[in-house]
User: Fold this.
Amino acid sequence: MNTSPITRVHSPDQGEPLAFTDAGKAVAHLQTLYTQATGFLCERFSQALTSGAPEATRYRAFYPEIRLRTSTFAAVDSRLSFGHVSEPGTYATTITCPDLFGNYLTQQIGLLLKNHKVSVWVGPSMTPMPVHFAVASDKSITVPQEGAGAFTLRDVFDVPDLATTNDDIVNGLGFTYEDGAQPLAPFTAQRIDYSLARLNHYTATDPHHFQNHVLFTNYQFYVDEFEAYARAKLSDPASGYTSFVATGNIEITDPKALI
Assistant:
């Protein structure tokens, strides 16, 4: 009788969650965990593309997470629209690209620490990181279409799960994590990664170059006007702008430079 070999799951050793009372240090640890996870997946994926994937082996890394526990109904300033939780409990959220969202995370964690007088915990979550999102920051790696590689991608690495990449939290549909924790943020890490990937796909521009507001247009002559506007801003020393990033991540600092 034939039996299937037991699949070995290899993951980076990221240690136990750590408690923080300093927002900057908490974000720094998020960045460390995220870099470890993406680095692990990029390295293993490159090896699999070059040498093939070992039989009955799976590589898995996890998103980092922030976790907050509070046990009191002590009043928090009712004028606040963010930076606090409304009732006692355990709250958590998975995090992606902490370097991109560093300022936002530092502000939000700082408010949680200030308003609740408790530590935040930072550690690896139980949510696997899809390999597509992990390698997005490494332009030398391309994920082949399913069936194009020498191994079956889903058998070796985690891939985006569209069934759970949704807006249930922000839509108020009663989302909770598997361990019962309530959401600490309106979107999960995988949902954010999916949106960042779409920005890159639609514009051929790395999300790191985007500002806080995005305006989409499907008319080419509008795009030409946006470019002219950007060049005019670069020509004005008082505008505050120092560079313009065009499609393909082409960055210029001279308003007359060719793209």
